[in-house]
Write the structure tokens for this entry.
Amino acid sequence: MGDKAKTHIGAAGGATTADRPATVRNVVLVGHSGSGKTTLVEALAQTAGAVVRPGRVEDGATVSDYDEIEHRQHRSVQLSLVPVEWGGYKVNLLDTPGYADFVGELRAGLRAADAALFVVSAAQEAEAVPDVTRAVWDECAAVGMPRAIVVTHLDTARTGFEAMTGVCGRLFGGDDPDAVVPLYLPVLGPEGPDGHAQATGLVGLLSRRVFDYASGGRRAVPPSDDALPAVEAARNRLIEGIIAESEDETLMDRYLAGEELDVGTLTADLEKAVARGVFHPVLAAAPAAPGGSQGLGTVELLDLVTGGFPSPLERSAPRVTTVRGAAREGLGCDPAGPLLAEVVKTASDPYVGRMSLVRVFSGTLRPDVTVHVAGRHPADGRAPAGPGAGGAVAHGADERVGALSSPFGRQQRVLPECPAGDLACVAKLAHAETGDTLSAPDDPLLVEAWPMPEPLLPLAVEAHSKADEDKLSQGLARLVAEDPTMCLEQNQDTHQLVLWCLGEAHRDVALERLRTRYGVRVDAVPHRVALRETFGAPATGRGRHVKQSGGHGQFAICEITVEPLPPGSGVEFADEVVGGAVPRQFVPSVEKGVRAQAARGVAAGHPLVDVRVTLRDGKAHSVDSSDAAFQTAGALALREAAAAAPIHLLEPVAEVAVLVPDEHVGPVMSDLSGRRGRVVGTEPAGAGLTVVRAEVPELEIGRYAVDLRSLAHGTGRFSRTYARHEPMPQAVAEKLRERSLIDA
């Protein structure tokens, strides 16, 4: 199997370390929520000897799900790393959440890994593999990431293993379903009271050997005669698939000539095809029975990971530039090369502080050395384009690396160093955020960003108390630094503090983390859209501010006309006073008062726009007139004009681009039309995908991130950009005014 890993296993459970990249395998587990990823990680850890007894997700006792939120929700909400040692290799198992709201954690796992295990549950109906899982498969295919498929829940299967393999071939195989074939077939025992037959073993198709797990361990037994026909049919298909992807062009001729091909040759070609990402074996797995030491299929799966999946040496690093944007070439997975590492996840530990999970692409990361931390922030302060993306503001600082450790659930096991190809946690990098790059201070570098979805579900928050208000900004800043799929906006129009999330579950976890991790209680308040007001017809107004209360009085009178302007004109002010009725020094005062009142609104408290205000006449007093008096008079005049004219509410309209599979285009267009939207066109966006473009009032798409997921079964995504403000229909405006009065 090649080079072996150097391991250090202490009596108290020391960290597993690898001294060279060839002995590392970084594997991410991908699958929908409930497919059994976390249970599979537990089973693999038990088989590898990393845990004595696997925990149960229902009990909150697994290595991966150690967060209090995960215990309460009985599901993964964050990326976790479980390193194990198998056959002299260090295997970094990256367990990811399956729920769509936590896709940022999934993408972090994909970034850190060199291969992926797609976990599919046989307990679901055939053809019921979620569309979002298929979308991730396509993303992995686009970058050539090696993939294998693991079928779980065979004990409660609604779909047989062979039927599920066929489903996976159709869904994941694309034009080449023969590239998705099983390596083993499950051996089923007698049916239980529920009508399901328990899988008790596996038949190796290449070796024709049967591995029995019924006793709690793994032992080889002879195959039964009645199973041989099915084994031979599946074996022939497997061999044909291997030969089709083999680099040895003579294999097909030898096979067609009836030659019995050497199992070793076939295995070697299989592993090469898997490592190249062109062949995708299907395996079955199940946790060990109570008292057992090895779960069904876990040995075979670990053998495939170490023998078939590529080492970091075989995977190219992401695109690298200098901090000034110049391309940097020639960096490979060399422990002796220049330092290049990336923060794939940031978390806060209540005892240790900030912890950064880092993937080292080049060089060796060591404790107590100074590194340069560089990254990019979104330029607009709201919609993140992904860490390091274009159109963002760069940031950087030199920091001293703290202790290095290898996470194993809640535990942190000390590491002496982390060479290229491996993963480690770095303590107390104060300026490091998810997506930032670590490099040498004399050679600062930036790693190209990985794609992140834009958070489009708004959550407006307010501090629950004065004590919470003092801690709110710091808590929110830390939350956003940890999660690049979340961003913070201080809306200048509505004066709301808005946390943008991916979905409702993402929002709930954010609120829970604020409370439990940072000790900040917040109240969620209705999100307000930035409305505007404008005049529906010309009007005049007279502002009279005259007061005498002893001593220096106040005297200012001004007369104005207001007329509507085209959209986008803002507020214009003109002076047409003749004869010095308003002294020249007080004309700017009137304008200042008018503009201040326009900013406050004249009807419903929304800023007034798209009007021209003309000062026509007025009166002044040689002693009592003042700047403040004419400011007040200008504001009063504008309010009087507004009372005499129809005031229209203007609502923001967004340009929306929705990317969905072709079969969902019709429902999406109908839904957008039902939101008062105008569909402006569609265009193809690749195989089986269409972009639907529309203009939709922002009032109607506050929850569109949630609704689209339901409408397109998790496969749709959309972007939105502000287009303009336009008049709101009168019926909608009246409902909004009534609701505002009720809320008040």
Observations:
- The two ends are 72 Å apart (CA to CA).
- The first helix runs from residue 37 to 47.
- The CA atoms of residues 62 and 236 lie 39 Å apart.
